[in-house]
């Protein structure tokens, strides 16, 4: 007979410990004592659906589900990687992941360097290059306020929300199956209208929604009382040919002891890691709380002082001064282990849970590291989908894809070129934004830009302002064979029509500035030179051999020795483009400087 304690039975069926205790007292279910703990034998309460599922679980069988071929996937709102890791363990091959938070992106890159992690706003990503090439799309979209201005409550009515971005990705990619996950409260948000809008949108996209379920993490080898709403939708042309089967639960409820010590899910006790500390005053209060207890276990005067105004409130206070129990699953983790309303005190020591303890409760492996500050690591872990829950759902999805493969055999698409296209566009777009921001800053500070004082420059560099390139050995066939460093600084200068002949012939060797030159340009950092020919545009790339103070017509008749200019000695390298192009570039004050890669990207974005 398999025994389950009253508290763990309460967690399994989703009710309070007090309710289960009343059931036992009133004989609703036969109760027993085992090792000093009161509870039930599962075989005697098999009529309860959750118990029946556990007693007849196919967990071990489902552990052996493997993909018939490589199934490709895209994940949005990836966070610290709980869902992504679980799905990859099940057999999905992530070709692209998107996340807005920099720390979370660094976590993904640190643990899986080969994953294509796109950092930034999902709104900026065009997924159309992946159309009909990706098998699966997933995302735990944040639930924002929805608009119900439309009559049908469909796709258009989700605009402005992050669910809209998930729906847009589905529309552009057309995966065979997609999954969304959220908090269970989404089904009742705004009296159910939000959820109806989501369901209408899924239908409008051409997908059949599997009857949604709220999955309890404790049923899937996760030692935590956490619930997530899972939405699975199958493309209409496939929906009638296959059926999705939800994962079987694990055979027992795991507890905090299974997370912190060697167990069925971990080979060793939890390793030491950093963690926040309690202030001395708070530590003194929590010292009085027993394992599994809360504020109700405190002396009344201590509880009143600690709880402040919350003492007078009604229910919803069980998270205050809460100490976890080794013999029960952990309470749902939040983004911080020591918030007053949702306390998560260590069961044996008077301190908050450490980062690694937090990660174990979410079933992250010990070798999955988190980037960022300690608080940000807690946040990533607290927001994650438990890895083992994602793994269980992932195995069921792999079984679904195997069924699809059996009735509609297809080959795995090589998405590398499409992903490169998406990433390339984003990089060019980012470069253009940086470039546009630079232009804006210059325009805003136009009146503040000072002119370079050539006399001061001459005094500082009497032997000339030597570019770093002049120190490099000259390569034979330099103009034809040298490699271009897109990370070097380039100076773009306007060449007026009466001076362009040598530049058209590519044999210009000197460029003289006007009498004024902006102090924002640092000549000593310049590496390349691009002439911007009046009426033509830009095309050719030159190397700056040296920069110095000189005069307009050195060695020529009519030279004024007091007419100081900045002189660039240049050498033609190669054309950047086949023809002259006019980028979205304003030559303010005749000169501008930037990174060469930003300059060429400005052209590419303009053409797109």
TrEMBL record:
* One Pfam assignment: DNA_methylase
Per UniProt, the keywords (alphabetical) are: Methyltransferase, Restriction system, S-adenosyl-L-methionine, Transferase
User: Gene3D superfamilies in the record, alphabetically?
Assistant: DNA Methylase, subunit A, domain 2 (3.90.120.10), Vaccinia Virus protein VP39 (3.40.50.150)
Active site annotation, chain numbering: 143
What Enzyme Commission number(s) appear in the record? 2.1.1.37
The broad enzyme category this protein falls into is: transferase
Whether Isomerase counts among this entry's keywords is no
- GO molecular function terms noted in the UniProt entry: DNA (cytosine-5-)-methyltransferase activity; DNA binding
Q: CDD domains attached here?
A: Cyt_C5_DNA_methylase
- This protein is called what? Cytosine-specific methyltransferase
